[in-house]
């Protein structure tokens, strides 16, 4: 059974940083597409960082230069380092791994507020 478990969310002030983690069991991140998405209240889910199956990393302009995705293959964990957070980054953040199937975690809430 595949499980993706996110952690690291919380309340942070604007300009602050958080690091999210996603630990997987039942599926290997290495060699598969892995991504972080987020969904703010009343908005559609959006992709914020991805590592393709070949190892390419991509970000949308909204987070480029502030967010960094990384992968620890030994721990089978993916991270999202988020710096210079803004109130508009407030959302539930989801981990996603795509093989022949799409696997999702349950999400972790990030709130950016003073």
What does this structure look like?
The radius of gyration is 13 Å and the shape is globular. The chain is mainly beta and 114 residues long. The strands form 2 sheets. Strands 2, 4, 5, 6, 9, 10 and 11 form a 7-stranded mixed sheet that branches. It has no helices and 11 strands.
Give a quick set of tags describing it.
114 residues; 7-stranded mixed sheet; 11 strands
Give the gist of this structure.
The protein has 114 residues and is an all-beta fold. The protein has strands at residues 3-7, 10-12, 18-25, 33-39, 46-51, 57-58, 67-72, 77-82, 91-98, 102-104, 108-112.
Radius of gyration: 13 Å
The amount of helix comes to under 10%
Order of helices and strands: EEEEEEEEEEE
The biggest sheet, with number of strands, parallel, antiparallel or mixed sense and barrel status, is:
7 strands, mixed
Distance between the termini: 40 Å
Number of DSSP helices? Answer: 0
Roughly what is the average pLDDT, rounded to an integer?
97
> Count of DSSP E strands?
11
- Overall outline: globular
Which residue ranges are poorly predicted, with pLDDT under 50 across at least 5 consecutive positions?
A: none
Q: Would you tell me the structural class of the helices and strands?
A: mainly beta
What fraction strand? over 45%
